[in-house]
Amino acid sequence: MSAAVEPPAIELVDIDKRFGPVRANDRVNLSVARGTVHGIVGENGAGKSTLMSILYGFYEADGGEIRVDGTPARIRSPADAIRLGIGMVHQHFMLVDSLSVVENVMLGAEGGALLDRGLARARAELDRLAADHGLAVDVDARVGDLPVGLQQRVEILKALYRGADVLILDEPTAVLTPPEAKALFGLLRTLREAGKTVLLITHKLEEIMAVTDRVSVMRRGQMVATLDTAATSPPELAELMVGRKVLLRVDKRPLAAGEPRLAVENLSVVDERDCLRVAEVSFTVRAGEIVGIAGVAGNGQSELMEAIAGMRRPTLGTIALDGTVLTREAHTPHNLRRLGLLHVPEDRLRTGLVPAFPAYESAALGFTDDPAYGRGLLLERGRMIAHLADRMAAYDVRPPDPLLKTSKFSGGNQQKIVLAREIERAPKVLIVGQPTRGVDIGAIEFIHRRLIALRDAGVAVLLVSVELEEIMSLADRILVMCGGRITGERRPEATDERDLGLLMAGVEGRA
Ligand SMILES: Nc1ncnc2c1ncn2[C@@H]1O[C@H](COP(=O)(O)OP(=O)(O)OP(=O)(O)O)[C@@H](O)[C@H]1O
């Protein structure tokens, strides 16, 4: 342990921040010791990202003080933060795909341009950082060609290159595969050993347990606890986060599956670049059954879901609903919705919502002919608003304001709006991609219960998720996809994460 006299690397004192009526940060205090990994948890909209944005100079606090190494600091922009040795790794990387790693790292760094510091010098510096911290990456590779895990590494290198002593990571594993996440944690430990300080926001309590020294819990804009990680547990953290006990396990009745509702036969899908993404995939989903598709992101799951949902044309094969093969004309998102096939897209900002619309309009996307909204072209705004207000209450969306612009909701609350839109319309078949990405533990429990309730009510559910735990606890049957093919089928009680992991990597698991 470091000497008691050393001031904390970061101290936030009585930080306040309001957005209109929302008190996003309410007299928040936080003290982070140098050379530690400090976790921050809290339910969706608790104010975690706002607090970190204040520390990084994206927002200015309405009140309170920031101290860096014991000295009061004025941080009015990210440039101020960087000057004080604070770096941030964003969830959506701020990298230029067409430039190389070394060019990206130099971009915007002090002195700005490629001209200023010679490329050779930057390369040498990157090599040193890579060697010191075990951050191997090909500095001449084009960033757009790197897998997501390595792009994240470039973001970290960029922050270190600019002299960061404190690194803020906002849900860094949301975009990573399990091996990439493991590699990231190894790296965080190395950075800690080198005396760096890491602030880690995550919804995954096992990550908190695995890698942090201390953990702070936020709830409704306030800091409710800071604990030594070794002295706490996931159930205790979950309870502090949501203010009640959370069931971390899913309870479900035995399977009582009925008729096949969705039948996919020899389906193949080729993408825009003529690459085969889905190769001769066949399966059925019966009424009252959840079929889970496990796989590392990018192995054809997205294209498969989009093809079924009528957003992409399959090149070969058929899709049948209730025993009737869909013709080309019938296979449109609009008609599928009419037939009772609903779809929760995995990428909510790209295909699920329109960020610039008020929430009630985003929540009506694709359903503007719903009789509940009124007739014909004259949609009744009042009814759309009332309808979403009901859903917001049921899903505990915060703030429960249907008129607020979609982009102003926190990530997890946006996810709840999309889920509520699709799930609550009595589907016969529900296709749901990454339903709990970015949502907090209380909301995960709620969403899992809703999916089980739909199954028990006879809905055929196709669940695609990169979270193995989610697939294992919800699915009645698990299909594993790798390289566009189904590489195995398992019952959850007859498999484990290792077996599925092998199938996901294209290696035959145990029979
Ligand atoms: N630019 C903004 N304008 C209006 N309200 C905002 C803005 N940014 C955040 N908020 C509100 O402030 C509150 C805190 O949001 P914040 O993004 O900090 O939560 P979070 O804890 O990071 O949530 P999540 O886990 O869902 O990402 C939320 O109610 C959110 O809707």
UniProtKB/TrEMBL annotation:
Residues 10-245, 262-508 form the ABC transporter domain. InterPro entries: AAA+_ATPase, ABC_carbohydrate_import_ATPase, ABC_transporter-like_ATP-bd, ABC_transporter-like_CS, P-loop_NTPase. The keyword ATP-binding applies. SMART domains: AAA. The keyword Nucleotide-binding applies. SUPFAM superfamilies: P-loop containing nucleoside triphosphate hydrolases (SSF52540). Gene3D superfamilies: P-loop containing nucleotide triphosphate hydrolases. Belongs to the ABC transporter superfamily. This is ABC-type uncharacterized transport system, ATPase component. It comes from Chelatococcus sambhunathii.
